Amino acid sequence: MKLTKAKLTSKVKAPLEILGYTYFKESISAAQGFFSKKLENGFYLTLGLTIDRYRESDFTGDFYYSKTTRWSSVWGDIPIESYERPGFIMSTEERKTYFHIENENLCDYWWDGFDDSSIANFIEVIKLTESRLFENTELTKKIEESLSVSQLKNYAVEVKKLAIYIDKLNLSYSYLPDKEIDGIPIQWFKASEYILKMHEGILNKNTVKALASDAFIQNILDNNK
């Protein structure tokens, strides 16, 4: 039986919520399970899940630590270390212990989504490793200094402010989706198109959707604090 996004989400949602993550029905990125939380330093820590294409029950997760929730975005001067799988920030002894393998150098580890003990192990690894990203002062400094991160963050800040009254501006749009996506009201897409156009950013249906999703998710997490 093939592991599905719905099945995997049902397995990990409750324990990840205990760790402070909020689940989002997010289909715009490539994540097959999307969880995020806002940190004390104002950054966001997002965890995206990936189901293996060939091994029907296997999955893994990738952290994304940034001022935005744009999971996996590492273009421009965004530090690649922002986007990392847990095994790569574990010690060799930890990998040997938690992965139950002799090869302690194996970093790209995958868990069994149908095995409750494997799911529990995944949650323990997330709990063990997540703070290593936001406690990494060098990485935090790189993110702070990234022009690409600042641009994305500023776009989202402006969309969050504009979305509540965008309909009062009576504007025309070219890149809106035909209907709401992932429960995001159409106003967020309108505000995203307007902000991208105003700043002469890359403007197409995909960039509008990505910005709307990021701003909408940020807004929910901001208000949960």
Secondary-structure blueprint:
Blueprint: H1 5-18, E1 22-24, E2 34-38, E3 44-51, E4 58-66, E5 83-84, H2 92-98, E6 111-112, H3 116-129, H4 131-134, H5 137-145, H6 147-162, H7 186-198, H8 205-224
Helix pairs in contact: 6-7, 6-8, 7-8
Write up this protein:
The chain is α+β, with helices and mostly antiparallel strands and 225 residues long. It has 2 domains: 5-145; 147-224, no CATH class. The protein has helices at 5-18, 92-98, 116-129, 131-134, 137-145, 147-162, 186-198, 205-224, and strands spanning 22-24, 34-38, 44-51, 58-66, 83-84, 111-112. Strands 1, 2, 3, 4, 5 and 6 form a 6-stranded antiparallel β-sheet that branches. A hairpin with a 6-residue loop joins strand 3 (44-51) and strand 4. The radius of gyration is 18 Å and the shape is globular. The termini are far apart. The model has no long low-confidence stretch (mean pLDDT 96).
Brief synopsis:
Helices cover 43% and strands 13% of the residues.
How many individual domains? 2
**Based on DSSP secondary structure assignment, what is the total number of beta strands?**
6
Report the biggest beta sheet as strand number plus sense, adding barrel if it closes: 6 strands, antiparallel
How do the helices and strands follow one another from N- to C-terminus?
HEEEEEHEHHHHHH
Could you report the average pLDDT, rounded to the nearest whole number?
A: 96
Number of helices: 8
Strand content: 5-15%
N/C terminus separation: 39 Å
Radius of gyration: 18 Å
Low-confidence stretches: none
Tell me roughly what share of residues is in helical segments: 40-55%
- Based on CA inertia axes, which overall geometry fits? globular
- State the secondary-structure class: alpha+beta
